Amino acid sequence: MNIFRLLGDISHLLAIIILLRKIWMSRSCAGISGKSQLLFGLVYTTRYLDLITSYISLYNSVMKVVFLAASYATIYLMYVKFKATYDHNHDTFRIEFLVVPAVALALLINHDFQVVEILWTFSIYLESVAILPQLFMVSKTGEAESITSHYLFALGVYRGLYLLNWIYRFWAEDHYDLIAIVAGVVQTVLYCDFFYLYITKVLRGKKLQLPA
Amino acid sequence: QPEPIDKDEL
């Protein structure tokens, strides 16, 4: 494992913790897209099925369990415990527009036509666009709480760091996975507009507010 | 010969 990969994983972990903590401490999931969280739950579930079938390392297994548990916990808090605070009027992105193409693409473009491999590929494609309901919600309300912005920043940076990891691995190990790389580029590009707003506004102490 | 698929990454 190289430094970019490690920092990417830490950033990913940090994002998940920031979100869970925000919901728990404020007893509210206002401003958070339940649909994006459902999609992430689906992403982790379909990608980490190999947790049962193959052992890679303790680090790998622990991280997978943590991501799965945190994702399910977030969904539970949003849809059960703090359901009353869930802002579903603003969470109107049609997720079938993301899930159906991700399934189709996974069936068409994959490394191996086998169930576990297709589910992995689906999870990679779906992850790249899973944040769209959340970004759509922010654009609809025109603003985001600072803590939500920190969450989005950490989540966006994670795949960006993976891109550096893949560049490094291509150079150092001659290893590359085009499916992950292309999806990772798409995923990171989707955050660019947000990164700009985060750096120019949130880091200067201002609330993230979109121009009217 | 393609590289074996690396599933170590998360």
UniProtKB/TrEMBL annotation, chain A:
GO terms for cellular component: endoplasmic reticulum membrane. Signal peptide: none annotated. PROSITE patterns: ER_LUMEN_RECEPTOR_1, ER_LUMEN_RECEPTOR_2. InterPro entries: ER_ret_rcpt. One of its GO terms (biological process) is vesicle-mediated transport. It comes from the Eukaryota. One of its GO terms (molecular function) is ER retention sequence binding. It is found in: Endoplasmic reticulum membrane. Keywords: Endoplasmic reticulum, ER-Golgi transport, Membrane, Protein transport, Receptor, Transmembrane, Transmembrane helix, Transport. The keyword Endoplasmic reticulum applies. It is a multi-pass membrane protein. The chain crosses the membrane at residues 62-80, 92-109, 115-138, 150-172, 178-199. Belongs to the ERD2 family. This is ER lumen protein-retaining receptor. It comes from Cloeon dipterum.
